[in-house]
């Protein structure tokens, strides 16, 4: 997952809210949606690559995917959780 020192300084690029690791159940649900072709990112693009983990914004509205240990901190790539 993400190094704790890095996690302590990462924030949402849009709102600057802190982030916390996503529960395994959330990652599993999103990966099932990806496999079924049902998931689009905030920019409207279909998500086709599964995620390894995720960082959830403090308000719980969006998740930033983590792939190969690297968080994808782009606003348009965020995944809606609500």
What does this 3D model show about the protein?
This protein is of the alpha+beta class. The chain has one domain (4-80). 22% of the residues lie in helices and 22% in strands. It is built from 2 helices and 5 strands. Strands 1, 2, 3, 4 and 5 form a 5-stranded antiparallel beta sheet that branches. The protein starts with a helix and ends with a strand. The mean pLDDT is 95.
Helix content: 10-25%
The biggest beta sheet reads: 5 strands, antiparallel
| Unreliable segments of 5+ consecutive residues | none
Structural class: alpha+beta
Individual helix count = 2
Q: How many individual domains?
A: 1
Supply Rg: 12 Å
What's the helix-strand series?
HEHEEEE
Number of strands: 5
Mean pLDDT across the residues is 95
What characteristic shape results from the CA principal axes? Answer: globular
* Proportion of strand residues: 15-25%
Q: Span from first to last CA?
A: 23 Å
What order do the helices and strands come in, and which of them pair?
Layout: H1 4-9, E1 19-21, H2 24-35, E2 53-57, E3 62-67, E4 70-71, E5 79-80
Antiparallel strand pairs: 1-2, 2-3, 3-4, 3-5
Task: Put the structure in a nutshell.
The protein has helices at residues 4-9, 24-35, and strands spanning 19-21, 53-57, 62-67, 70-71, 79-80.
